[in-house]
Amino acid sequence: MTFFEYFQVAALVVLACAFVTKATYSCVSAHVNPIAIGRSQGWVQFVFELFAFIGLAVWLFETVSYALHTRAHIIPAGANITLINSPVAKIGGVMLIGSGLMIVFWAFISFGDSWRIGIDSETPGRLVINGIFAVSRNPIFIFLNLWFVGTFLINGGLFFLTFALLAMAALHYQIIREERFLSGLYGKPYQDYRSRTSRYFLF
Question: Based on the structure, what is the number of domains in the chain?
Answer without folding.
Answer: 1
